[in-house]
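Q: I'm teaching a short session on how sequence maps to structure, and I want students to see two examples side by side rather than one. Could you give me a first protein with its sequence written out and its structure tokens following it? Keep the formatting plain so it prints cleanly on a handout.
A: Of course. Example one:
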Amino acid sequence: MGATAIRRHRLATRLWHWLNALAIFVLIGSGLGISNAHPRLYWGRYGANFDHAWAQLPRFPAWLTIPAHYNLAISRRWHLFFALVLAFSLLGYLIVSLINRHIQRDLRLRRRDLAPAHLAADVRAHLAFRFHDPAAPGEYNVLQKVSYVLVLFGLLPLVIVTGLALSPGMDAGWHWLLDLLGGRQSARSLHFLAMVGLTLFTVVHLALVILAGWRNELRSMITGWWRVPE
């Protein structure tokens, strides 16, 4: 008997997933190239070679950066273009997901989801490599919901807002944003930390996709159809 297939991902979710994946990949690579120009992080409004830095970053190798050699101008062009791709694709995805009730239906965290016993059971299931324990096939488990909510409504908005604050063109009308974030150097530090959070999420996400059965997961994100494991 063949495995049962269910419709798991709508077209808007699939399009946004791949567009976001491309944007994140380019933004991380170009961001590391920008970081190589001044690999130190500060808090406050100002930061220069002789100021106290709270973090000294490594010089990232060429194979991790975009372009694959040091060129600050080109890194900035790639970064700024795909920052727009990231921001507007996220906005479009959230609007469509509210209209088709994907967020309310699939990502809403209920009180029972956050109960300690429920969280502990989900952690144990993940440690045992049982990723499809929810009662309804295709339903997101609580760790997926928490991580997606943190990314959608936490890390992605933070990296976009801090990126806006770093743009010199925003000084005239949006100086209040820099004040809110504690200054340009604080915004830069928060931007980097948000990027680290998104990178860690991406690494864990890819690892879990492989462990959960990458063919089935990849098929569902391309076609929308997911085969329910036996």
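Q: Perfect. Now a second example for contrast.
A: Example two:
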Amino acid sequence: MNALRFRRTALAVATAAVLPFALTACSEDGKSSDAAPAASASADGSDPATASSTPATAMDKPFGTACAGVPKEGAGSFDGMAKDPVATAASNNPALSTLVAAVKQAGLVDTLNNASNITVFAPTNDAFAKIPKADLDKVLADKATLTKILTYHVVGQKLTPKQLENGSFETLEKGRIATAGSGETYKVNDSSTVVCGNVPTANATVYIVDTVLMPK
């Protein structure tokens, strides 16, 4: 009887000793199972936030009918203009020679080149040609009026095409311009059409327009 009791006691002690290890092993297995989905989710090394980001679209590039006239290479090309500040970049575009002459006449070259993150609505030579020559000559000879008109074409932030869809922006002249449109068709103040938009320079985004904007 004593021998039988001794065996039963020994068996109970052994079971009690093994049970905690068994529970521990089960718990560790449980943790490993719980962690598996997380491990598999990151197995490809991708970040969910990155994976859901929107890819670049065609609207990140210059657009418009007049863009075809921009030189394919050299300082006046899109790649060339992207390396220069805005007044310098404009001087390399033959279609903006009247604007560049006006900017020089008003003494705004350094102002524009040294500004940061601006948008310039740049009238083409044809846009200036719509103004009667006598009136244009008068404006070019009046530095204060010329400065007022030119700074009305500048907004103190870089504007994306999306922002132009239905926008109102304060200009450096302290007036406001209104924009509307979508896709590759945009109007400024209901009178001027963007003919080549979203052109990058080193410090500005340029929207080339077909009519000179006049402040009130």
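Q: What should students look for in example two?
A: Point them to this: The two ends are 116 Å apart (CA to CA). Also worth mentioning: Residues 2-41 form the longest helix (40 residues).
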